[in-house]
Design a protein that fits this description.
Layout: H1 2-36, E1 52-54, E2 57-61, E3 65-67, E4 70-72, E5 80-81, E6 86-87, E7 94-96, E8 99-105, H2 112-132, E9 139-140, E10 149-150, E11 153-157, E12 161-163, E13 167-170, E14 177-181, E15 185-187, E16 193-196, E17 204-208, E18 212-214, E19 219-226, E20 230-232, E21 237-244, E22 247-251, E23 254-256
Parallel strand pairs: 1-4, 1-21, 2-5, 2-22, 3-8, 3-23, 4-8, 9-11, 10-13, 11-14, 12-15, 13-16, 14-17, 15-18, 17-19, 18-20, 19-21, 20-22, 21-23
Antiparallel strand pairs: 6-7, 7-8
Length: 258
Amino acid sequence: MKTLAIFATSGMRLVAALSLVCIAGIGASALTQRRSSHAKGVNLGSAANYVILTKTGITTTGTTEVSGNMGVSPINSTAITGFGLVVSANGQYSTSALVNGQIYASDYADPTPANLNSAIGDMQHAYSDAAGRTSPAPISLPTELGGLTLGPGIYKTASAVGISGDVTLNGTSKDVWIFQISQDLTQAAGTRVVLTGGAIASNVFWQVAGVVAIGSTAQMQGEVLAKTGITLNAGATVRGRLLAQTNVTMISNQVVRQ
C-alpha cells in the first residue's frame, strides 16, 4: 500500500510538472505572437534626410528655428519664403540663419534635383504605406484625443480628429503608432502630444488626408505625413518631421528632428 501511494504521489508530481511546462510553453508562444503582431515602422526612404519636405513650398514669418534639412520639389526655390536664403558656392543648396541644416530646391545644381525627386517619391510611398496598413488590425480612433492615453498600434478613422487636451502615447522605444486619418487633424492651442515609457517621436506616424493645423504654442511629436498642407500657428513646436504633399506654413516655430 505504501509503495502504491509513493508511485501515485510521484505520478501526480510528474503530471503537475508536465502541466507547468506546457503552460509555460503556451505563455511564451502567446507572448511571442503578441510581440510579432505589433505595428512596424513606416520606411521614409530618402525623405528621412529632411525635417521639412514639401511639393509646393515652405513659408515662415517671425523667428522660426528648424534643426535639419529642408527641401521643395517640383516647385523651385522661389517658393521658400521668409528664410533669407544664401545659395552655396557650388549652387547645390542654400543656407539660412533660421535653419541648422541645408535647404534644397529643384532649381539648384546637380545632383540636387534628382535627389529631391527621389525623396518626394519616397515621401509619397511612405504616405501610401501608412494609409494602407491593415496588420495588426486597426483600432477605431476617437474623433477627440484630448485626455486619452493610447498604447502602440494602428488607429483608423474616416472622420476629422481633434486634440483639445494633452494626449499621451505610452510604450517602449521599439513600439510604433500609426494614425490613419481620412480628414483633417487639428491640435488646439497649448496642447501636447506626450510620449511616455520610452516611446520616441520617430516611431509615431500621423497619416492625414486632410489639412494638419497645429495651434499656437502646441507641442506635436511624430512624423507628420500630410496629403495636403501643414500649418503651424505662432509658437507651436514639432519634434519629428513635416512631410507635406502641398505646403508647410510656419509662424515663429521650432521644428526639430529626433
